[in-house]
């Protein structure tokens, strides 16, 4: 029974391991964009296990790839031996990255990928100084927490890197919020220069940024923002790392990588989440000389393991063969249009934002911009009660996030919007 499982969960798992919903949900099975709970109810899933089920559930192509590995009887070999899928996947990512002479290192998570990116940059620049964005999330290791600009996700002040935070794309609560795009970007670029000049010793290793901040509530900077930031980084020889853990693989619709909206090629990109359609795999792609600049052995025992690489290969093939980026653009636009209509109707919605199949509602006390996390929690319950799963986020816990599988259909987008409309009406 689900209640019993909740009590057992609470007894043996950490108290800070957050569960959604007053009556937490156990997901029992899934197909397409729908899951069935142990409560026997079916849900349309607009969060996909935090963007991990990028193609949806029960995808035959991914299953066949995993089955083929299991059928061979060897689930893991370690990277001490050649892994064909790993090499072929690295070739594909190196090509897709647009980074010249790129090399790829596979990990088992986004955190580990960002840790590696920091290692590459700090080694190359012989500096432990790093720039990160306010309202960022990069993972749960000491270094990743060190570059995470959300108090609620940064459990320790211990950090192997020395971090300075700059303004980023969270415009709704920025002191520059009222500025038009170009001036907003110019103000943030001026802040970046000021931070480099006033809070660092000059020889900064890198700046790391999410093109659209995920955990931070899908905060979207103006297009070209990171291009303008990178021009300053280049003056100082500071490397640029794009954390594509949420924005990669066409999710933003307009581009394959989120950073491409900014007209720049980063020195390093990191990825994870939906890459293996649920299997644990992440990685780093970087210019070859950066990747080869590590002067010691390094290994991730399970990074790029045969099972996960086979799933990731099948997933990336599926994304490309079905042009899911185009689907993210089309269905994402439909979703965002519908959400904007809801935003115009409900004064509890302070802002609707997003790109492609990343869409967010920031909830506020009506008539103000005061964050309303209680309304966000209620809307989570109301949507669940009507058969829709969505996510929550934002530094203040008042942002609802929707990032459905990239295979979402127009009919499913409409269905989700109608549930959201009813749920918002129930909030009144
Ligand atoms: C942008 C971003 N980077 C890194 C991470 C960390 O990834 P993982 O949880 O796989 O370690 C996350 C996870 O939410 C993320 O959203």
Q: How would you characterize the overall build of this protein?
A:
The chain is α/β, with parallel strands linked by helices and 428 residues long. The chain is 39% helix and 16% strand. It is built from 13 helices and 15 strands. It has helices at residues 2-12, 48-51, 60-72, 84-97, 110-125, 142-146, 181-199, 225-236, 288-291, 306-321, 324-345, 373-385, 410-427, and strands at 27-31, 34-37, 42-45, 102-107, 129-133, 162-166, 206-209, 239-243, 268-271, 282-287, 349-355, 358-363, 388-389, 391-393, 399-402. A hairpin with a 4-residue loop joins strand 2 (34-37) and strand 3 (42-45). Helix 7 runs parallel beside helix 8, helix 11 packs parallel to helix 13 and helix 12 (373-385) packs across helix 13. The protein is globular. The chain starts with a helix and ends with a helix. The mean pLDDT is 97. The structure holds pyridoxal-5'-phosphate (PLP). Pyridoxal-5'-phosphate binds at residues 109-111, 114, 137-139, 210, 214-215, 243, 245-246, 272, 282.
């Amino acid at each position: 029974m689900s209640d019993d499982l909740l009590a057992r969960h609470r007894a043996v798992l950490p108290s800070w391991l957050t569960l959604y919903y007053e009556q937490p949900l156990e997901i029992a099975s899934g197909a397409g964009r729908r899951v069935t709970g142990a409560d026997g109810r079916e849900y349309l899933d607009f969060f996909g296990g935090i963007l991990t089920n990028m193609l949806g559930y029960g995808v035959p192509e991914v299953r066949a790839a995993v089955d083929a590995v299991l059928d061979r009887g060897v689930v893991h070999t370690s990277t001490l031996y050649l892994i064909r899928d790993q090499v072929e996947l690295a070739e594909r990512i190196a090509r897709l990255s647009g980074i010249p002479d790129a090399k790829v290192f596979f990990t088992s998570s986004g955190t580990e990928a960002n840790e590696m990116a920091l290692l590459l940059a700090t080694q190359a620049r012989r500096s432990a100084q790093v720039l990160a964005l306010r309202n960022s999330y990069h993972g749960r290791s000491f270094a990743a927490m060190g570059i995470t600009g959300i108090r609620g996700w940064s459990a320790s002040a211990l950090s192997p890197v020395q971090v300075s935070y700059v303004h980023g794309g969270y415009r709704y609560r920025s002191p520059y919020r009222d500025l038009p795009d170009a001036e907003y970007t110019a103000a943030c670029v001026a802040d970046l220069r000021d931070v480099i000049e006033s809070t660092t010793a000059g020889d900064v290793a890198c700046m790391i940024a999410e093109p659209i901040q995920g955990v931070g509530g899908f905060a979207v900077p103006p297009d070209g923002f990171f291009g303008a930031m990178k021009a300053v980084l280049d003056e100082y020889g500071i490397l640029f790392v794009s954390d594509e853990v949420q924005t990669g693989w066409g999710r933003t619709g307009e581009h394959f990588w989120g950073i491409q909206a900014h007209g720049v090629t980063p020195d390093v990109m990191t990825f994870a989440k939906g890459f293996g359609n649920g299997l644990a795999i992440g990685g780093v792609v970087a210019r070859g000389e950066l990747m080869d600049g590590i002067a010691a052995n390094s290994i991730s025992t399970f990074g790029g393991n045969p099972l996960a690489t086979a799933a990731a290969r099948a997933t990336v093939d599926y994304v490309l063969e079905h042009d899911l980026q185009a689907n993210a653009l089309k269905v994402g636009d439909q979703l965002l249009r519908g959400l904007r209509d809801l935003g115009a109707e409900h004064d509890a919605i302070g802002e609707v934002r997003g790109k492609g199949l990343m869409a967010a509602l920031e909830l506020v006390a009506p008539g103000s911009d005061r964050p309303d996390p209680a309304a966000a929690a209620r809307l989570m319950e109301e949507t669940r009660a009507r058969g829709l799963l969505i996510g929550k986020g934002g530094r203040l816990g008042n942002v609802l996030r929707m990032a459905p599988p990239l295979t979402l259909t127009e009919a499913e987008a409409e269905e989700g919007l109608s549930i959201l409309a009813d749920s918002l009406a129930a909030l009144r």
